[in-house]
Structure formats: C-alpha cells, structure tokens
Amino acid sequence: MTDSKYYKRTIVKETISSTHLQEDRNLRIFLPPGYNEVLSYPVMYCQDGEDFFNFGRVATHMTRLILDEDYEPVIIVGVDVDKSVRTSEYSPDGTRFEPYTRFFAEELIPYIEQKYAARQERSERVLAGDSLGGTVSLHIALNYPELFDKVLSLSGAFYESTLARLTQETDLSRLDMYMVIGLQEESVVTDHGTLDFLSFNRRAHEILVERGAKPLYSEQEGKHVWGFWQGVLPEALQYFYNR
C-alpha cells in the first residue's frame, strides 16, 4: 500500500465532553472518500483510537478497500484513551469501567449519530478493540443489546470475569463476532500477570458457540502486538463490510 491515494483521506479530530467520565475525551473520525451528508454510512467504533489509526492503519486499510475493491464506504470512530487509566476503563473489574461503558453507549453514540451521517440501526454499528479493548467492546455489546450485535476482537483479554459474564447469557444468537488470536500468545505479560490469551480465547469461543453465536474464530501465527493486528485488520474489515 505505497500508492499516495490511500493517504488522501479525511480524519477529523474532535473532543466530546462526558458527564459519566467527568472529563473530555478525544476522538478521531475517518470520513470515507466521497463522504456526503445527504447519504448515510455504517460506523465502526474503535477502542484505543490512537493506536487503531496510527499502528493499525485502519483508515488506510479502509480507504484501499473502498477505492480498489468497491467496498461500501464506512465511518470509523476512534476513541482515544489515557493509557494510565486504560485497565481501569476497559477491564470489567476496573473502577472506571461502568462510567466508560455508559459514556460509550449513552453519550458517544448519540453524539456521532447527531453530528455525522451515521446509520442508526444496530446492524450498522461495529465495536472494535484489541486486548482489553476487545473485552470492553464485548461487554458493551452484552450490556446494550439494543445498540450492538457486532464485535471485532483482536486478541481479546477474555479473563475469568468475562467468561463468567458470557456464561450468564442464555441466547447469544444475535451476536456476530470476528475473533482472532495469535498462536504465540500463550504467555502475555499484563497488569494481571503473565497470562495465556490463547486459552482464554478458545474458552470464550466455546461459550459463545454453546449459546448460539457463530463467530468467525481464527488462530494465526502472531504475538500480542500491533504488528500482528495490523496484518489481520483487512481480513476483519472484509468480514464485516464485504458480505
């Protein structure tokens, strides 16, 4: 992807004030080529917004798919996070987890859908995240079933609390997920110690299937780093936007 046409894109930086978080939160919003306010577009919401755009190159990938492979244009919203409180916001056991998930569902979604030409149907929204970003994305989809039924998980940190939450569900047939995990993620160093992400994802996949979900689950050569996730992002985008 060296052609300069992939880098001629519109990324708007905004700040949203959150009552739930009691602070402002920075956003970066990719508007697809040919964006027109009289039309409407599906939206992908990314945790770790800065990383998704800078390390994942999600805007570049999406631009290429739109220009070269005639994909439907998509708005991508990246929600930045302060890394010092990331675990507190993204982990189900974190003190900022509930305020963050409420901000996402109750403040961010209405803000985007009022200001941009975003489709407002549940089927037109995708939640995306890496590691704990995948965790919080899944929990938001579980807690707000009226808003979300699609989740893109890059090496989700599906610890015991998340597995227990999934087990509480009786019917997850509405849930549509793309899950990828690296085969070299058996000993990932985290705030919670060195953990086996591969086993966590295998168990999460089993529970999801037991409860009626049909995730696209993939184990590939890769470590718990953006170098791996950047490479699989095009496949994930294709899963949601080329069907």
Describe the structure.
The chain has a single domain (4-241), classed as Alpha/Beta hydrolase fold, catalytic domain (Rossmann fold), CATH 3.40.50. 38% of the residues lie in helices and 23% in strands. It contains 8 helices and 10 strands. It has helices spanning 49-54, 58-69, 86-90, 97-115, 132-143, 160-168, 197-210, 226-241, and strands at 10-18, 23-31, 43-46, 75-79, 125-130, 150-154, 176-182, 188-190, 193-195, 216-220. The longest helix is centred in the middle third of the chain and has 19 residues, at 97-115. The two termini are 23 Å apart.
Class per helix and strand makeup: alpha/beta
- Beta fraction of the residues? 15-25%
CATH architecture: 3-Layer(aba) Sandwich
Q: Total number of helical segments?
A: 8
Strand order of the largest sheet: 1-2-4-3-5-6-7-10
The residue-averaged pLDDT reads: 96
Q: What portion of residues is helical?
A: 25-40%
Organism: Paenibacillus swuensis
Pfam family, one: Esterase
Protein name: Enterochelin esterase
